[in-house]
């Protein structure tokens, strides 16, 4: 049996060993490319996007190639199909996605969550209905309703669902469903309140649906409450996590307008943008992308302009890689903020032009862009920003998070990997950082694990 002095000596040795391990882990993490000081300088990018195009493409060819790569429907459906094949399906149960609301970041995840829980219950689906934002008051998100083709390509969604999950019947609306027989609507299912063991959440609605199921001979309609960063995407395979979001393609017209803008960046500023790669592949040595979230609908506790601007300016001035990029493409719903930020950029050690979508489009294309609603125009910004060499936004914004997680799947960690040294970036005020994106703020830690790219 140890005496008190021997026990004290043992404790000191264990403490010293533990401290040594901690310091070693810190130094290992510190030297990873995602560290706050070295995230960009240590990046090495290979492949076609890292080199200049071999020849200059005409505008027509550039736009056609961009559209062809963006609208390609023959992605790998096998991962989604495998999950659907393993599910027990019930043709008498149908989900309806309740309360779909917000901008593209929220709405996309809300619909994907609804589809994923529908699959888990072996249920059909009524095409989602989207709540409209008021044009005169951006904070009013319930000024009417519209179909999902307001933001998405509905026909291609249906085609992709048929290829990926043919077992799931999809109905245009409630009237179409009622033609099949009597419909009984159940109480709302709240995914965060599904029955579960303590500290072990449930991510399947199947048991609850069986409890609520209508009598035999009736169709059970299940309203599913909206949720947008809840389901752990890597609960399924990495392949599923990477392809599930592809079920929701954006409208064709916004793809074309984004292609026009990308061509202007490519031709006027001689940027390395390869139109033949998909829109989710970040482009090395192209441009800095920034989402300046200062529109009139911001919430009181969100990060204000000054903190956003200071962070972006400091990051650009302290990074050799960002300083080397020739231009900034900025997305913002506040033109005054853009003008102020543009002026401040000129005081950097490496000043550069700051452009928006309206600076890069003209004629009939500009008129077409202007006729889109605020949320539809955001789709154009989204598609352009996916091609940036590095993207910066703020963590209060679902739009910025959507960009970060979409780009993440091409990072070294991928959608389901661990970002070495990522925990230290939180100490410096960023919620997310990898080789391609940086989100300032102290909200949303871990959201990347619950948002499909």
From TrEMBL:
InterPro entries: GDP-Fuc_O-FucTrfase. Gene3D superfamilies: 3.40.50.11350. GO terms for molecular function: transferase activity. Transmembrane segments: none annotated. The keyword Transferase applies. GO terms for biological process: fucose metabolic process. This is Alternative oxidase. The lineage of its organism: Eukaryota, Fungi, Dikarya, Ascomycota, Pezizomycotina.
């Amino acid at each position: 049996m140890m005496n008190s002095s021997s026990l004290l000596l043992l404790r000191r040795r264990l403490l010293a060993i533990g401290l040594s391990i901690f310091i070693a882990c810190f130094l290992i993490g510190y030297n990873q490319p995602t560290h706050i000081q070295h995230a960009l300088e240590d990046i090495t990018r290979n492949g076609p996007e890292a080199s200049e195009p071999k020849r200059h493409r005409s505008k027509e060819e550039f736009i056609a190639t961009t559209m062809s790569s963006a609208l390609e429907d023959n992605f790998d459906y096998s991962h989604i199909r495998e999950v659907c094949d393993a599910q027990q399906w019930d043709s008498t149960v149908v989900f309806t996605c309740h309360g779909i609301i917000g901008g593209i970041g929220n709405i996309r995840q809300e619909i994907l969550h609804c589809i994923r829980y529908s699959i888990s219950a072996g249920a059909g689906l009524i095409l989602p209905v989207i709540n409209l934002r008021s044009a005169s008051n951006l904070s009013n998100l319930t000024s009417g309703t519209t179909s999902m083709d307001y933001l998405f390509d509905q026909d291609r969604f249906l085609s992709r669902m048929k290829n990926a999950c043919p077992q799931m019947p999809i109905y245009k609306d409630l009237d179409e469903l009622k033609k099949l027989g009597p419909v009984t609507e159940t109480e709302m299912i709240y995914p965060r309140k599904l029955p579960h063991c303590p500290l072990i959440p449930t991510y399947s609605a199947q048991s609850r649906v069986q409890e609520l199921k209508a009598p035999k001979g009736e169709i059970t309609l299940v309203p599913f409450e909206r949720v947008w960063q809840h389901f752990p995407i890597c609960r399924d395979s990495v392949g599923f996590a990477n392809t599930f979001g592809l079920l929701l393609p954006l409208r064709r017209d916004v793809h074309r307008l984004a292609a026009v803008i990308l061509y202007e960046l490519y031709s006027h500023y001689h940027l390395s943008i390869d139109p033949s790669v998909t829109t989710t592949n970040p482009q090395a040595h192209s441009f800095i992308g920034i989402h300046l979230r200062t529109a009139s609908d911001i919430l009181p506790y969100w990060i204000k302009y000054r903190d956003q601007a200071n962070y972006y300016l400091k990051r650009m001035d302290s990074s050799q890689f960002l300083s080397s990029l020739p231009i900034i493409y900025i997305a913002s719903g506040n033109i005054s903020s853009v003008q102020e930020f543009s002026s401040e950029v000129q005081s950097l050690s490496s000043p550069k032009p700051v452009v928006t979508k309206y600076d890069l489009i003209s004629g009939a294309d500009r008129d077409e862009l202007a006729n889109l609603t605020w949320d539809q125009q955001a789709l154009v910004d989204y598609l352009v920003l996916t091609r940036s060499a590095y993207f910066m936004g703020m963590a209060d914004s679902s739009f910025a998070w959507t960009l970060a997680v979409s780009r993440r799947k091409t990072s070294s960690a991928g959608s389901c990997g661990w970002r070495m040294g990522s925990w230290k970036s939180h100490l410096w005020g960023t919620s997310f950082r990898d080789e391609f994106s940086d989100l300032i703020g102290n909200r949303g830690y871990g959201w990347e694990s619950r948002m499909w790219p």
